């Protein structure tokens, strides 16, 4: 009897058709003629799955039989995007599937449109995690991605009268064909209660006596490498009530009320928090964090590793990479397991823990750094709080040994802040073997400005790994025309060795290649136009430059600066300063969600829509300027927008954007960047060259110097007449039917506060945009720059990021 994996179906059109029809019949219980589009989509997804499963199971078996170290990526967010095309591409089945479905008379496009993307992340950090696990699988590096299976992902955005309205994202309404639930393998995750000391054969030990618990049910997802036969695992946890749920804890005596209280357990994985820049200290969020991290660590130790594994050797087998501070509660959890459960000595356990964790920081904004009030932490995880106190005590002792009783330093470095909260970034830094920022500038600022005392105390701990993006999804799948062009020019192999794009450089001077490149952009614009027409009834003029700013709405990213440029361009026309007919046609595309509680961000969304309505409908503009703001920007829409873009807007205040990853996707798709010297823009500009990048604005040191001198934004509005007029237009109600009160708060915030120095960078930004207009009129020169952007951006593959993590942090090896 075969006990290994059953072989995959035959990789032929006939084999695919047979498996497809079997799945329709046996898994969906329908015939082809009676099937719905959802049935047909499911059967297709199941068929692709069937080809991948054998490799997956074989890979798991081989990993278990090896003694390799695995990367356990701990992330509260994975912004995966649709899976169908990615899995077809990875398994090399795209053509076979297309042919097979055609033979069945099934429209594959219709099925593609059925798939709902799992939006289990907010933005950059979640999408980065998805790119990283794609690269690890492609590089055959053993990896388990651990996270949360939120029942509701990032909200669906709609506009009502130009204002953002949030709708729940019920992505699981029709189920998900890609997941493998394992309720039988649920873990018990405990909370609350108290700690006690007890006598353990003459040794006094501590233990946790929790008050309540929930079940963590694993859902497995396949993460296929690109045509290499490797399939890794993404394991997302879903919360369930316990069988033995202690009803009395919640409601003594009232049975019905108590049973109702079981839904409390299901709440933990119910919804993704939509804030991505302000930590609010919400208890449910801490529950989510502990829930998934505790389940993941236990899973790796109890399920992945062999039974009775000697945990002093855990660092040889596992590195837990902390994707920001969200999973940092895993540090005291591992200590608790080692010391309380496995009865290891504290020092030995600490040595293991320090080697097993590494921490990636994704921000420089102080308000995004997580801190947990000790009373909340002590109530939810009392033993963990004790362990954190002890870690802090020993750490501060070491600081005193080194620097003497420098109380100011001690206060500054204490994991417990003076106002009684646990500073999670400090805990991660003390516990982690390495700490990394996500772009050169960010890592430098992290060491110099955010954690300088730690950098001094832990020489060699800080490092940089510049972010990257997967070329499989963001070039090959999103831009098949460009991919074909590249392969035609330099052959294949570049998709897994992206530096080879360098070989494209000579083609920048090849007029035929540039023409083909221009046709590719035009085709992508038409494809985007068709998508936006069908989705939102929007139109794009064929001859317009496409100027794109897509990212979360945040003041530091400065969508307001983009808007001031648009208002200025509009004002120049309506004031008669320029002839409409002489203005190069531009379509401005925005995509942005605002955190539901972030009032200023929502007001800016309203203003973008309001400016769009006025500009788009004003006959004096003669259609030269258009503003489009399709709602609900997500991965699926990004895949359409980015390949069509001519100009990429990366205009954050220098020193605020940790890296950015959209910037990389645009450059790789041949858009030119207008950007500040911030995050990974710095590295993009260095690589593509000054001539192929529109730099503007203050540098980070200049920003610091201006703050030090004293920043008075109103002075800048006085100095630049164009800026003054743009602000007046907005503040006077020109975009709100004469009602000045609607957008006055935005203007007064800019004039009086302007934390992100929008006004200070305005003049320089407008000058850069004038250079853009000029440059765009020379089509050959523009396309030359665009080709050079593609050719010189190979560095930004997430495969390279993974190699850097491996060399600098993980020291793992691929499983051959
Ligand atoms: C604590 C909670 C409020 C929170 C939740 C989500 C805090 C932050 C986040 C997400 C942050 C994020 O997406 N950061 C982005 O990470 C990208 C990947 O490293 C960077 O490219 C980008 O600059 C950074 O803003």
Automatic annotation (TrEMBL):
BP-aspect Gene Ontology terms: glycogen catabolic process
An annotated GO cellular component: cytoplasm
Which intervals of the chain form a coiled coil?
Answer: none
EC number assigned by the record:
2.4.1.1
Q: Which UniProt keywords apply?
A: Carbohydrate metabolism, Glycosyltransferase, Pyridoxal phosphate, Transferase
Q: Which residues carry this modification: N6-(pyridoxal phosphate)lysine?
A: 665
Pfam family of this protein, just one?
Phosphorylase
Required co-factors: pyridoxal 5'-phosphate
Matches recorded under SUPFAM superfamilies: UDP-Glycosyltransferase/glycogen phosphorylase
What does the UniProt record say this protein does? Allosteric enzyme that catalyzes the rate-limiting step in glycogen catabolism, the phosphorolytic cleavage of glycogen to produce glucose-1-phosphate, and plays a central role in maintaining cellular and organismal glucose homeostasis. Phosphorylase is an important allosteric enzyme in carbohydrate metabolism. Enzymes from different sources differ in their regulatory mechanisms and in their natural substrates. However, all known phosphorylases share catalytic and structural properties.
Q: Report the sequence similarity comment from the record.
A: Belongs to the glycogen phosphorylase family.
In alphabetical order, the GO MF annotations are: glycogen phosphorylase activity; pyridoxal phosphate binding
Which CDD domains does the record match to this protein? GT35_Glycogen_Phosphorylase
> Under which main EC class is this enzyme filed?
transferase
Instruction: Indicate yes or no for the key word Protease.
Output: no
InterPro entries reported for this sequence = Glycg_phsphrylas, Glyco_trans_35, Pyridoxal_P_attach_site
Q: Which gene encodes it?
A: malP
Q: Which organism is it from?
A: Microbacterium terrae
Catalysis performed (reactions): [(1->4)-alpha-D-glucosyl](n) + phosphate = [(1->4)-alpha-D-glucosyl](n-1) + alpha-D-glucose 1-phosphate
Q: Which domain of life is it from?
A: Bacteria
Could you tell me what this protein is called? Alpha-1,4 glucan phosphorylase
Query: Could you confirm whether the keyword Kinase appears in this record?
Result: no
